Amino acid sequence: MALSLQHEHAWDVSTDEAKAIQRRLVDEVEETPLQGDAETVAGIDVSIRDDTAQAAVVVLSLPDLAVVDEAVCRCEVPFPYVPGLLSFRETPPVLPALEQLSVTPDVLMTDSHGRAHPRRFGFACHLGVLLDRPTLGVAKSILVGEPDGALDAEKGSRVPMVDDGDPIGTVLRTRTDVNPVYVSVGHRRTLDDAVRLTLDCSPRYKIPEPTRQAHKLSRRSV
Question: Of 8, 90, 112, 204, which is least surrounded by CB within 10 A?
Answer without folding.
Answer: 8
